[in-house]
Amino acid sequence: MSKQPLIELRNISYLYPHSTGPILENLNFSTQEKHIGVIGSNGCGKTTFFQIIVGLLTPTAGQLLFHGKEIKDKNRMRDLRREVGFLFQNSDDQLFSPTVIEDVAFGPLNLGYSQTAAKKTAIETLAKLGLEGFEERITHRLSGGEKKLVALATILAMEPKMLLLDEPTNNLDPKTRLRLISILQGLDLHQIIISHDWDFLEQTGSTLYRIEDGHIHRCEEDHIHVHSHIHKAGDYPHRHGH
Ligand SMILES: Nc1ncnc2c1ncn2[C@@H]1O[C@H](COP(=O)(O)OP(=O)(O)OP(=O)(O)O)[C@@H](O)[C@H]1O
Ligand SMILES: [Mg+2]
User: What is the pTM of this model?
Assistant: First the structure.
């Protein structure tokens, strides 16, 4: 049998206040595979699913298990957040310090590192992502792609075991997208990636799951693969009909 999954959701339901019905209902899921891709239409509850995993939302019903044990208190949730890094759909929600170095050092400082050690970790993490020289840049003035990579650095600086990435390739140009793929391929971490970018999911070796009608299921029927083709202005990730 496979090892104990890091995360398990049992019969999870979630109802937003003032909404007419639950967005997730009796959802069951566990991190069976190391690299998981989550697909589903806009508004089906993908981001909600991630927010429940990291405790930003408390499920209306059901259980969240971490290393096989139900999360019941704040301390255990803190342990989970230490191991599971969440890259937000919108980087502006993730970055809040004036400079890049402060943002990336924030997590390590929070974990109890000294100022010197936190700064060292931040500098090393930025370097690993090819962001040398970004340390003193003003965070809110970075481009969208730069913000995405800096946001990833804030997470990696805390040395998580698992990454939750919410539509990480959105608005990335082809070069930055390839850079992100190569960064992710170089990490030996569990990953759950929400994306509409099929080629990206394929290149990150993800087993596909779909959220639909409040449930999540593995896409046994889908076989994702990369096509090679040529046409004008095709140098960006895009999808074709069948
Ligand atoms: N705070 C909230 N209050 C009420 N409804 C909300 C709230 N946040 C999200 N929703 C609704 O819940 C549904 C699921 O939202 P969610 O952000 O999880 O979808 P998603 O699958 O991530 O969509 P997308 O692909 O557009 O990012 C949507 O219909 C959304 O409008
Ligand atoms: Mg979303």
Answer: 0.90
